[in-house]
Amino acid sequence: MTRNTMIDGWYPVGLASQLDAHGRRTALMGEPIAVRRGEDGNAKVTGGNGRDLPACIRYGHVWSSLGDPQKPLFAIPEADQPGRRLVDVGVVRVRCSPLRAVENFLDIAHFPFVHTDILGAEPHTEVQNYKVEIREDEDEVWATQVKFYQPQAAKSAEGGITTEYMYRVPAPTCSVLYKTCPPRPAEWDVITLFVQPLAEDLCDVWPWMALFDDETPMTDLIHFQQTIFVQDRSILENQIPTLLPLDPGMEIPTRADLTSVAYRRWLKRHGYTYGAQLVAQ
Amino acid sequence: MKLYDYVLSPSCYKVRLMAALIGVTLDIRPVDFHPGCEHRGPELMALNPAGSIPILEDGDLVLTESSAMLVYLAAKAAPQWLGNDTAGRAARVQQWLSFSHRLTASLGAARLHEMLLRPGNIAALREQGTAALRELEAGLVEQHVRGQRFLASDRPTIADIACFPYVALAPDGGVSLDPYPAIRLWSRAVRSLEGFIEMPGIHRLHELTPAPVLEVGEA
Amino acid sequence: MPPYPTGSWMPVALSADLPAQTVMPAQSPAGPVALWRTRSGRAAAFADRCPHRGMRLSHGFVRGETLACIYHGWSYAKAGNCQRIPAQPALTPPDTIRVATQHVEDGGGIIWISVGEPAAGPPRFEGLAPLRSMVVEAGIVALEAAAGTKAAGGLLDYTYDDRTVWLLLAPDGQARTLMHVLVNEDSNPDERIDASRAAEALRRAAEDIARAGIAR
Ligand SMILES: N[C@H](CCC(=O)N[C@@H](CS)C(=O)NCC(=O)O)C(=O)O
Ligand code: FES
Ligand SMILES: [Fe+2]
Predict the structure, then answer these.
(1) Which of C49, C69, C75 to mutate to test the pocket of ligand 2 (most atoms within 8 A of CB)?
(2) If we measure between CA atoms, which residue out of A53, A54, A99, A103 comes closest to residue A201?
């Protein structure tokens, strides 16, 4: 068997704001783990056999790893910009591959059908050409110049606008998207999807946001994002096969799927196969 | 009328859906149920010591049971939804309103367990949920034989609205709806009602609108 | 021998449970299918898996003569060929994009599927009318034991009080059976309701037998 190269990565394991001395029991790639606040105030994560696991707190969440992370957690420089509202959306569990959850997040063509009248609406279904690349220096997948017509792009949006997006995959189960920010045209809103792989076919999803929006109440921001994600959940639980096929095999990608194609290629190149299968059967 | 509401709560959705179907405007007060647990905070516990939502406030009337809210909305704005024109029908409506609490306790709890990580004995909850779905299916089959498409009558009543949300969202808790053709037809009839609104987990019936065409020059 | 050799028919649903312009999930001898009916009333069965990204097509929607996938809206004609990809509206989808289809017959109030070329049409049950379909968490043997009689040609006559209901059985694996309840076509509503309740009772008995069998 080949070594699971995803073992050395960082994964979200809880909300920093809900960390307490009592702690929570959860799992990472099949191993039961416990997450709590230590005496020194820092996050403490222990593995199945009681060993201490690496831990850090960043972007509203506690992060940990079963292995030996070679790199610090990826950077989201915008998250530290003053004036942003940081939104802990909370966990949603999904019975699907953690990689399928990320792939869905990178997809815009489903907006009119799954997020009807919010992120998309017929007849505005066309996906314009956009740019996709694997940035070798950062070793990340990027999609840029992604544009889509949206009836209600954000809680703060009034009426339909053509929204521009950039997508970034800095780690196999995490994605960061940058989206047109209606109140501040020069900036991007940051919306992330942090996925905790519990098993190859089960994950806890922790969406998180860093927005320029001084108007909307925090609860409305949380509910907007929960609405969107739970609309995706029933799709994710009904895709066949459960594991993400890294070669299309029986699946048929088209031009609108170029981000997905690049993501799968990047996963395959790194041997990031926890939650994947090589060919669709 | 003020509704303490959570977008992902099927019980709150019952009240939003009823109001939408009969054209009542609600003043929505979002509650940070998850992850904030605001329904257990001092402000909401003072209103509803049971620590649950929805809560409906109208003047000095405070309701904390969704079935009572459906009765209140219908009695005020659309009494035909009460389905109380005969003794038998009135009783049948009450029968399903009481039954709907079993859906909350089984399918609803399974959904909270599977989706929002609430504790619970998932196998037992699913088994109770399946038993309730079988009862509903059998009830709907008998209604079809009587020539009626809805739970208590040939037109929808508050009974349908009380049962619809947790049933439609059963798959969220890992309980399949595939074995229930009568539930499927009923669910479709509810979703086709004039004024119907969705909640996350219940998709739009896109077939109700014709395939839209983009005018030339429109982007 | 598998329960449904190539060319034989499996009763998968009742026609009345599939109105025009709807889709439902069903089990066929070749696996899960999306069973759907066009606006003009014709039934079709597709493998329940979208060729694009694997979404179950039984969650989709029927517009006119096509079935569309709920995920990205790709739509397919009755023959299985993809007709439209909404993300690329100007593209005529190549003929290679198609979903696997199965033979469907819709007659006598029952929808049948055959895998492979059928030699003859599906059976007809003269004088009987379908009432409802139900899933039984037990195999045919347990159902036969509960009814106290053997199925012939997939049909089990179950006599209760002094009435008979006919149960058309389709195995779904060893431990589950799809059971279509048929009644005398001139039964009145009260008799139909009784038949439905008798079928519920039979299901309970068969599932008790199956559970006891597993426990033993
Ligand atoms: N009073 C019941 C309660 C409905 C219910 O169970 N509401 C859930 C949200 S969907 C709740 O508030 N649960 C409290 C909790 O789980 O802490 C009703 O109105 O039907
Ligand atoms: S998966 Fe069916 S259209 Fe994309
Ligand atoms: Fe989505």
Answers:
(1) C69
(2) A99
- Same domain as B89, residue B58: no
Closest ligand 1 atom to residue B8 Cα is 10
pLDDT digits (tens, 9 = 90+) for C5-55: 788 899 999 999 999 999 999 999 999 999 999 999 999 999 999 999 999
The CATH number of whichever domain residue B141 belongs to comes to 1.20.1050.10
Asked if A280's CB is within 8 angstroms of C87's CB, the reply is no
Amino acid identity of C153?
G
Homologous superfamily (CATH) for A77-277: Naphthalene 1,2-dioxygenase Alpha Subunit; Chain A, domain 1 (3.90.380.10)
Q: B199 in a domain, yes or no?
A: no
Contact B10, B108 (CB under 8 A): yes
ipTM here: 0.96
What is A1-73's CATH number?
A: 2.20.25.680
The candidate with the shortest Cα–Cα distance to A98, out of A34, A167, A29, A48, is A29
Contact C17, C110 (CB under 8 A): no
Cα–Cα distance for residue pair C99/C48, rounded to 1 Å: 9
Lowest mean pLDDT among A68-77, B61-70, C5-14, C67-76: C5-14
Interface subset of A 215-274, CB within 8 angstroms of B: 217-220, 222-223, 226-228, 230-231, 233-234, 237
| B199 alpha carbon – ligand 2 mean position (Å) | 22
Ligand 2 atom showing the smallest separation from residue C55 Cα: 1
Say whether both B41 and B102 belong to one domain. no
Give the C-alpha separation, C35 to C111, whole Å.
Answer: 9
C96 CA to centre of own chain: 28
Q: In terms of CA atoms, which chain C residue is nearest residue B180?
A: C134
Ramachandran quadrant class, B201 (left: phi over 0; alpha: psi -120 to 50; beta: rest): left
> pTM of the full predicted structure?
0.96
Domain count, chain B: 2
pLDDT tens track for C89-142: 999 999 999 999 999 999 999 999 998 888 899 999 999 999 999 999 999 999
From the list C132, C107, C121, the residue with the least C-alpha distance to C182 is C132
Q: Which chains does B contact via 3+ CB–CB distances below 8 A? A: A, C
Give C51's contacts in chain A (Cβ within 8 Å): 250-252
DSSP reduced 3-state for A181: coil
| CA C106 to each of CA A17, C5, C41, C123, C189: distance values in angstroms, whole numbers, following the listed order | 58, 20, 10, 11, 24
- Judgement on whether residues B64 and B28 belong to the same structural domain of the protein: yes
B34 and B99 share a domain? no
Angle between helices B66-77 and B158-168 (to 10 degrees): 140
Query: For residue C57, which atom of ligand 2 is closest to its CA?
Result: 2
Instruction: List residues, by chain if needed, whose CB lies under 5 Å from ion ligand 3.
Output: A 232
Tokens, residue C56: 């179950």
